[in-house]
Structure formats: structure tokens, C-alpha cells
């Protein structure tokens, strides 16, 4: 049943009750109507805007709502609250409902939290000053989003990334200075033609700044803008740049042609070696190799049965004299079976050629998955729409929190299994090179550790440390951790500010306090694992326990149970 227009209800009830208590009734009615019909009841948007404003700042202390002016009816166009000692976090998506808002100045306060990308799809916002707060996370401007922002000052905050600025076609003033923004110059800058003021000083950009940029914005716009910034002569990149670029493109094309040729040849050679190996294996098995070989096969079959999934294996080629040791090592490796280890299906030694046969992992490695197919890649995804109304499966492929936790736990389980050593050897198998690119992902995103068993001289504690770094990378979404960058991040976790380093892609959509707690706890595991002194680090077995405790619900659902 369609509702009658609010005004008719209004007048009816008003006529009815006018004689009794007109004023309070009128006020309640006004607020009721403005709440439920703010779009259709447009004759006095000011009142509804006031309510929206109070809601938006509900968890901000020291916010004093403006005193309502009864005669005022035009919508709120500016919210200017500089240096009001505001602390807490603004509900940005509620604030976004002030649809006539043109100017927003919240500078010089102590506001926290991150700004959801969809906030920027505001239809009218032109001047934004959020300078000198404690805002963090990423600043993301999606496809259909605000093209009318003229000035944006987010200096002196804790933003860590910025994307989609190129969509702010009318931007004239941009101050990103004094943040921790990791980005690339000039790719991440808005269109330079309209820009009159720019400051990217004191950030973590990389890339190049040419003469033209320097001339236009001055050297002081690029003070300590990052460590890898190159200042280049624009002559090299202006008039004849297209010629150069074309030439570069040609070489790249040539190179990739050559590369595919090499790959093709490599493939042919591989097939050849495989065929050869199969032939020699068949010949040898015809000869019959006696008891020793049978024992090996027997043992393997048993293992295959207990695992229930390793039925089809490449036959072993028997080693020639000097390759015997290598073959023994491979055989030992091949017996290390765990759902979180990349299974060695077979190996083949033919003279100097050694060929290891692994199961193919469809999803590639963790590094690639985390950094090359990211959920928030602004140029691929539009953050403005309802792209987040996604099924579980799609969310998982976009790297949501449960998936990342499952990956961390899986890797921990695989390493714990390795460190136990397999029954026959009695000594720990140390990986020695635990990095995201050595963690492959199966179709269901279950992690499989690759490249194990080659370490020389590394200790289990070294693996724990490297695992801690993998956890940091999983949670912050940042690559390239070294002792230098790890220090500050560990500091944040120690001070209980872990949430500030969490990958913004994990929180853009808003997360529950429990999830926040889980992520912070998981960061603490990374913190423990990366302790300076090896004896302070937990064992992988303990790490498995810790990670299970972080998300108790997940521990039972995982397939691995052997450690
Ligand atoms: C700012 O607010 C905090 C509480 O939120 C208060 O303790 C402090 O005194 C205020 N500072 C000023 C300068 O008003
Ligand atoms: C914003 O306004 C729309 C209707 O105008 C309403 O449906 C929505 O709930 C409001 N959102 C918030 C967060 O207040
Ligand atoms: C933003 O506010 C700060 C301090 O309140 C001020 O210094 C700065 O000039 C403002 N930025 C713009 C673009 O108006
Ligand atoms: C950003 O740069 C500062 C120095 O300019 C450095 O101390 C900090 O570790 C860097 N952070 C990251 C995440 O690269
Ligand atoms: C940019 O910001 C830095 C740090 O606040 C400041 O030193 C520099 O003068 C600013 N440059 C311009 C062009 O405003």
C-alpha cells in the first residue's frame, strides 16, 4: 500500500489536534517525518540535516551540535569545525547523507579511523580540509566518484595509500604532505593541468619528478616525499618521449616474443626429458630391481593410502652412482606429506639433469595473490557501487580476513610439520626461505609451502622469524619488509595500535569489533615471531596454537589436523 504523501498526514493530524498541544506534537512530527521521508519531505531539509549531523558525530567527543534555528530551512552546506578538540571517529557514511554539503573543515582535531571509499561519491563536496588529525588507512576515489572536489587538504595525518586521484578532474589544490603514503609519482597524481597547488612532502612515494613538475609546484612540494624518488630532466620525457616510448614498446614486444620462444623450447625439452625418464623407468622395472626397490614402493604405497590422495605418482628413475645421494634426498623430501606442503610428485635424474615434478597450483603464489590481484585495485574495481554485496566465494578470492587467517594458519601448520621432522630422519627439516612467493595457493586457497628441504645452515627459529614477516605482509598488505620497516610496525603493534597498520582493503567495508580484535591478535603473533632474539620466538607448534586461538571458529573447519 503506498503511503500518503507526508504533507497530507501532517495537515490531517495537525487539523485534528491543533487545539490541544500544538508545539511538541509539531516538533515530534517534524523529526519523524524528516527521518523517514527525508527525500520526499523536502520543504525543510535543515532539520533532517541537523539530525544526520548529530548522528555522524555521535562517537566524536567535544562535538556540540549547532543550536537549531527554527526559521531556517535550507540544507546544511558547510560543516566547519577546525581546532575544536574533536576526538573519536566520524561516521563518514552518515555524514555523506548531508547531500548539499560543499565545504568540510575538520582540520586541527584528533579524529581517528579511516574514510570509506564510498564517502567520496558525495554529490556536492567541493572543499575538504582534514589536515592535522589522526586519520589513517587508504584514500580511495572510485570510478563514479566525486569529480567536483576542488580542494583537498589531508596533510599531517596517517594515511598510508592513495588511489584514484586521477579521477578528480577538477582538483586545484592537493595537500598530501606529512602522511605515510606509499605510492608512485607521477602516476598517482591527479590531472596536472588544473592543479595549482600540490604538496606531497614527507611521504613514502617512489617514482620520478621531472623538471615540469618542479617548475610548476616548486621543490618544496617534494621534500622527503620518499626514498626512491628520482629527479629527472624533463627534456628526456617531453617532446620526443612518444618516439622513445614506441621504441621501448618494440623492445618489450621483441623481448616477450623471445621469451615465449624460450618457454616453448623449454617445454619441448621438458616433455622430452619426461619421455626419456619414463622409458628408462619402464626398462628398469622390466629388469626387476629386487627387494630394496620393492620396500621403497611398499612404503610409498602405504603413505599414499594413509594420505588417501597420492595415488598417481611418477615412477622413480633409479639413480646412477654419483646421483645416489641426490636421489636419496629427493626421496626423503617426497615422503614429507602434509596438506600444507607442496607435494613432490616425482623426480627424475638423468645424467646432470634433475627434474622435480610438483602438483600444479592454479592460484599462483601468495605474493602474487596478495599484491597483484588485490581487491581494492581502483582501476579494476569500482568502490562506489554495491560491488561489496558479494558471495562468500568471491569475497574469499578478494582476500577477506577469514581467508587470510586460514592462509596464515595453513602455512604455520606446514612449517610445524616440517620442524617435527619426518619419522625416519628424526631431525627437523628447516625450510630456510619462507617468503610469500614460496607459498603456493591451491584452488580452494589452501596454502602449500614450496621449495622446502634445501636449506643449509638455517635454524627453525629463522623459519619462525620469516613466518612472522609473512604474517605482517598478510595483514598489512605491504610487501618488501626489512628490519628497517619492521621496527616501526612492531612498535605500533606493541603500543596497541595494530589496527592502524592493518591492510585498508580489510577494513574499507567496515568490520565488526571482534574481527578487529582478531586481526590485532594475529598481528601480535607476527610480532612475537619477529622477536630480535631467536630464543624469544615461539615454536611453530606454539604458533599454530596461537593462531587457532585467534579465530577459534576457523580451527575446526580447516582440513589440516595432523599437527
Ligand atoms: C580536549 O578534549 C579532551 C577530552 O576529550 C580533554 O581532556 C582536553 O582537556 C581537551 N583539550 C582542550 C584544549 O580543550
Ligand atoms: C542515508 O539516507 C538514505 C535515504 O536518504 C537512508 O536510506 C540511509 O539509511 C541513510 N544512511 C545513513 C547511514 O544514515
Ligand atoms: C586547512 O586547515 C589548516 C589549519 O586549520 C590550514 O592551515 C590550511 O590552510 C587549510 N587548508 C586549506 C586548503 O584551506
Ligand atoms: C616511510 O618513510 C619513513 C621515512 O621517510 C620511514 O621511516 C618509514 O619506515 C617508511 N615507511 C614505510 C612503510 O615504508
Ligand atoms: C609542503 O609541506 C612541507 C611539510 O609540511 C613544507 O615544509 C613545505 O614548505 C610545503 N611546500 C609547499 C609548496 O607548501
From TrEMBL:
Domain of life: Eukaryota
InterPro entries linked to this entry: Kinase-like_dom_sf, Leu-rich_rpt, Leu-rich_rpt_typical-subtyp, LRR_dom_sf, PRK1-6/SRF4-like, Prot_kinase_dom, Ser-Thr/Tyr_kinase_cat_dom
Protein kinase domain mapped to chain residues: 257-554
Leader sequence residues: 1-38
Region (Disordered): 290-311
Keywords, sorted A to Z: Leucine-rich repeat, Membrane, Repeat, Signal, Transmembrane, Transmembrane helix
Coiled-coil residue windows: none
Intracellular or extracellular location(s): Membrane
Molecular-function GO terms, alphabetical: ATP binding; protein kinase activity
Ranges of Basic and acidic residues composition bias in the record: 292-311
Gene Ontology cellular component terms for the protein in this record: membrane
Main location per the UniProt record: membrane
Protein name (record): Probable leucine-rich repeat receptor-like protein kinase IMK3
Amino acid at each position: 500500500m503506498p503511503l500518503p504523501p507526508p504533507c497530507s498526514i501532517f495537515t490531517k493530524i495537525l487539523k485534528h489536534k491543533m487545539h490541544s498541544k500544538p508545539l511538541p506534537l509539531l516538533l515530534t512530527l517534524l523529526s519523524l517525518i524528516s527521518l523517514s521521508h527525508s527525500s520526499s519531505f523536502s520543504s525543510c531539509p535543515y532539520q533532517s540535516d541537523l539530525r544526520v549531523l548529530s548522528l555522524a558525530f555521535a562517537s566524536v567527543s567535544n562535538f556540540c551540535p549547532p543550536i537549531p534555528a527554527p526559521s531556517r530551512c535550507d540544507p546544511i552546506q558547510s560543516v566547519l569545525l577546525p581546532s575544536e578538540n574533536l576526538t573519536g571517529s566520524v561516521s563518514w557514511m552518515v555524514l555523506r547523507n548531508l547531500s548539499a554539503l560543499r565545504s568540510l573543515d575538520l582540520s586541527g582535531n584528533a579524529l581517528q579511523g579511516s574514510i570509506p571509499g564510498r564517502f567520496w561519491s558525495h554529490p556536492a563536496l567541493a572543499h575538504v580540509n582534514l589536515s592535522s588529525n589522526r586519520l589513517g588507512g587508504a584514500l580511495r576515489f572510485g570510478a563514479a566518484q566525486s569529480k567536483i572536489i576542488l580542494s583537498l587538504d589531508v596533510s599531517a595525518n596517517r594515511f598510508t595509500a592513495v588511489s584514484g586521484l586521477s579521477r578528480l578532474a577538477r582538483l586545484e589544490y592537493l595537500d598530501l604532505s606529512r602522511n605515510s603514503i606509499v605510492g608512485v609519482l607521477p602516476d598517482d597524481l591527479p590531472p596536472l593541468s588544473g592543479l595549482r597547488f600540490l604538496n606531497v612532502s614527507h611521504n613514502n612515494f617512489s617514482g620520478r619528478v621531472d623538471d615540469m613538475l618542479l617548475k610548476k609546484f616548486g621543490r618544496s612540494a617534494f621534500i622527503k616525499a620518499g626514498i626512491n624518488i628520482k629527479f629527472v630532466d624533463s627534456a628526456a620525457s617531453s617532446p620526443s618521449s612518444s618516439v622513445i616510448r614506441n621504441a621501448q614498446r618494440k623492445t618489450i614486444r621483441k623481448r616477450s616474443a623471445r621469451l615465449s620462444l624460450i618457454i616453448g623450447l623449454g617445454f619441448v625439452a621438458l616433455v622430452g626429458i619426461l619421455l626419456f625418464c619414463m622409458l628408462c623407468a619402464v626398462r628398469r622395472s622390466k629388469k626387476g630391481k629386487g627387494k630394496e626397490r620393492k620396500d621403497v614402493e611398499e612404503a610409498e604405497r602405504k603413505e599414499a593410502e594413509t594420505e588417501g590422495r597420492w595415488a598417481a605418482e611418477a615412477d622413480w628413475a633409479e639413480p646412477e652412482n654419483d646421483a645416489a645421494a641426490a636421489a636419496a634426498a629427493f626421496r626423503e623430501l617426497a615422503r614429507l606429506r602434509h596438506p600444507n606442503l607442496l607435494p613432490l610428485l616425482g623426480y627424475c635424474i638423468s645424467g646432470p639433469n634433475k627434474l622435480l615434478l610438483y602438483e600444479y597450483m592454479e592460484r599462483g603464489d601468495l605474493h602474487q595473490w596478495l599484491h597483484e590481484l588485490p581487491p581494492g585495485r581502483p582501476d579494476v574495481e569500482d568502490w562506489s557501487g554495491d560491488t561489496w554485496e558479494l558471495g562468500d566465494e568471491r569475497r574469499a578470492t578478494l582476500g577477506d580476513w577469514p581467508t587470510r587467517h586460514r592462509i596464515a594458519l595453513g602455512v604455520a601448520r606446514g612449517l610445524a610439520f616440517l620442524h617435527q621432522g619426518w619419522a625416519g630422519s628424526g631431525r627437523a627439516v628447516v625450510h630456510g626461505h619462507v617468503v610469500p612467493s614460496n607459498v603456493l595457493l591451491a584452488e580452494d586457497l589452501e596454502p602449500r609451502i614450496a621449495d622446502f628441504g634445501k636449506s643449509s645452515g638455517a635454524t627453525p627459529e629463522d623459519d619462525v622469524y620469516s613466518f612472522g614477516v609473512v604474517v605482517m605482509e598478510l595483514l598489512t598488505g605491504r610487501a618488501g619488509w626489512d628490519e628497517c620497516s619492521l621496527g616501526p610496525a612492531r612498535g605500533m603493534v606493541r603500543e596497541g595500535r595494530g589496527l592502524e597498520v592493518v591492510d585498508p582493503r580489510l577494513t574499507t567495508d567496515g568490520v565488526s569489533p571482534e574481527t578487529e580484535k582478531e586481526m590485532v591478535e594475529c598481528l601480535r603473533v607476527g610480532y612475537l615471531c619477529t622477536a630480535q632474539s631467536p630464543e624469544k620466538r615461539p615454536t611453530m607448534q606454539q604458533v599454530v596454537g596461537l593462531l587457532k586461538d585467534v579465530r577459534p571458529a576457523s580451527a575446526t573447519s580447516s582440513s589440516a589436523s595432523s599437527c
